[in-house]
Specification:
The chain is mainly α and about 375 residues long. The protein has 10 helices and 5 strands; from the N terminus they run H-H-H-H-E-H-H-H-H-H-H-E-E-E-E. Helix 5 crosses helix 6. About 20% of the residues are buried.
Length: about 375
Amino acid sequence: MKRKLAGVFLGLCLAVPGLVPVVYASSANIQEQQDEVDGIKDELSGANENLDYLEGVKEVLEVEKDAYENSVSELILEIEQLNDQIEQKEADIVETQKILTSVKKDEKKQYASMKQRIQYMYENGETNFVQIMVESSSIADLISNLGYVEDITKYDRDMLNVYSDTRQEVETQENILNTQQQELEASKQESARLQETMMEKLAVAKDGITEYSTQIEDAEAKALAYEEKLRQEEETLEGMKRREAMEQFYALGAGGDYNTSGIPLGTAPATVYSADDLQLLAAIIECEAGGESYTGKVAVGNVVLDRVASPKYPNNIADVIYQKSQFTPVASGRFILVLSRGANAACTEAAKNAFAGERAVPMGTLYFHRVRAGESGNIIGNHIFY
């Protein structure tokens, strides 16, 4: 009976393009491959942690750079304002000095006039008093004339006092303006020093950003290399597992129907699902395999349910489908449109049967993509599953 099944299998290999007998994949070889995959995952995890660290440091430097740039801008504005204030103080000082020069000149002139009058009155005082008495027509006129002389003397003293007080006030104001100017100059120098310090820190931050950007690029390239290597090794591992399952399947003499690439169709335990789960699975089947055969539709449903069952993916339909960067129709927005109107009957039927346990690909199939030139394997329609 086993020889007969082997003959049937050989005939299928010859009849179906791309299906060839495979070498038995031992459990030991599979475990070695699994260990290799796990090792690469650890390396990828370390690379991603390093990448996260570098990006975190770069973000901190970006924040510091922005803060330094804002500080430099504020200091430049402050220096400009101080320059304006210094110019105004200088103009005020010049004007005050002009006033002071004028007051000193008037004071000196008034003092000279008074001194001349006092000297004249002193040198000619007796004659003047006699003249005043002679020329006075009455006692009242005499008192008035004498008071006039006294008024002139008092006026001179008062004017000198006024000029002296004004000069002192102007000199005080000049001193105040000079002090304020010196304070503004000191503030300007301090602001310039702070600006220079901020510029130095800004340069350091920019250099750090450039350095970490380069390190991030290298880390990203390293992580991508690990991801590609992991993908290849996982494909190898999944292929070994499929080969082992197929060999065991035929070695046990199992029979049944076959899909278009010769993989035997089978059944698995039914999955409990809700109406929402059915709508989600049917919608993603239509988006990914709407134009494929019934078998291709079921295969897509199998991949989604296998991901739900896998510890590497979320444990529910919605999270598996909406997981970032997994299904292109979700990212493009097409999935939500199909979900809103409801999937067609054929895709809904395929989803129901996938939930019921019908399988078009081996258990544990987690990936599929459109067939590329030269690829061979578990091809169903326009997709290859692995």
